[in-house]
Write a structure and sequence with these properties.
By secondary structure, the chain is mostly helical. The protein has helices at residues 25-30, 39-48, 77-82, 87-90, 101-107, 112-123, 127-135, 141-145, 149-167, and strands spanning 6-7, 10-13, 70-73, 96-99. The protein is globular.
Length: 169
């Protein structure tokens, strides 16, 4: 790599997105948990933070320093386990969003359809602001609260794939 592997808008190396031009949506669906240091999982996380990754509670920007933020599961582990999802299915980078530890604790084991509107009501932010903050993680509000985990992952992968391809062209 003779040219710079850094993007001025995101200081993380672009080589993490290796071969993203040819990545299919299905490959994003298989990306594991970012803390396991899998290349595609971390590249997926970087893509989700490209628009700033605003915390739902305090609007602080989350960064790709995984030790400084909580990896929260958009659909909680308890919620998905009750519905017989395997740990492999639960711990996907597409299901991950970086938030503060405090926000993560407040989400707990609730379903998105419960904790997202609750966050909007309790904080007086309102739905439009919660939508904006979720969008900063490339999370579609409607897909998240619809209650269909697999469709949510599919929708998020479909958003990330063209972004990855454009960054590597």
């Amino acid at each position: 790599m003779g040219r710079s592997t850094r993007d001025p808008l995101n200081p993380m190396p672009l080589y993490l997105l290796w071969n993203a031009r040819t990545r299919a949506v299905e490959e994003f669906l298989t990306a594991g948990w970012p803390k396991k240091k899998e290349r595609l999982a971390r590249a997926t996380m970087l893509l989700t933070l490209r628009d700033g990754g605003l915390d739902l509670a305090d609007e602080a920007r989350r960064h790709a320093r995984l030790s400084k933020s909580a990896n929260t599961i958009t659909y909680s582990q308890a919620h998905l386990s009750e519905r017989n999802y395997s740990e492999t299915d639960i711990y996907r980078s597409l299901s991950c969003a970086l938030v503060s530890w405090r926000t993560n604790r407040n989400i707990a084991a609730k379903a998105p359809a419960e904790y997202i509107p609750q966050r909007a009501d309790e904080s007086s932010l309102g739905e439009p602001e919660i939508r904006r903050r979720l969008a900063s993680h490339r999370i579609d509000y409607d897909a998240l609260i619809a209650g269909d985990y697999r469709r949510f992952l599919q929708a998020r992968a479909e958003v990330l794939q063209p972004l990855a391809a454009s960054l590597c062209s």
